[in-house]
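User: Hi! I'm working on a homework problem where we have to compare a predicted structure to a textbook description. Could you give me the structure for the chain below?
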Amino acid sequence: MLVMGLSGTMDAWPPSFVDSLAVYRRVITFDNEGIRQTTLGPGTMTVGRMADDVASLIRALRLRRADVLGWSMGGMIAQSLVREHPKRVRRMVLCATAPGDGRATPPAADVITQLMTGTANVFRLLFPPGHESAAQAFSRAITSYPNASPAAPPEVTRAQLAASATWASGGDPSGRPLSRLRLPVLVGGGALDRLLPVANQRYLASAMPNARLRVYGDAAHGFLLQHQREFLRVVDRFLRSRAPRRAR
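Assistant: Happy to help. Predicted structure tokens:
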């Protein structure tokens, strides 16, 4: 299952990304709460509530145990899902995300200002300077779907931003403790990420018992797109590998 991040819809997954994962497995994408035909719940949106939605979807589709890949806010949702619904997930891939135990490293100062004033362009934060061709390829890919709509409504994005901030500050109960997430985990990030700095991914990999880390030195928040072919090979090997034996 692919869990999208802040301000994105399921159309923000490039077709080639989904197709590559689908060579050996069934791939499911969906829209988070409040996007298109997905119901917006009453009250305050939270990461935990969005994770409950994913658990309900897994149950409704009668899946046994899903492999879950979450990007950015989607990685927060994935962590909450495993914390609250551990029997629903077999393995987890966390991409450019942050912990929910209060130990998160915040975005760069100017990015925080943009986020708080509503002037942030998340798309422009995906790739570092000098990689405009990757940004253009991503834009072409996600607009190639019939009736493509890759961006969430502004009011939903604002609610997601508030939910993500609560998560990163340790205010969502489903964000801790990380030590209880004992399933196999692959953590990936870009060293130049200014939205959710790579210190978050390094911390996640060190805090979870069965986690491994992959960092791309020339990439930012969209490392999984900039290095799509190589990273998806890593993901495929991870999903196919044997789970480590737990010490008795």
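For your comparison, note the following. DSSP finds nine helices and five strands in the chain. The first strand starts at residue 2 and ends at 3. Good luck with the assignment!
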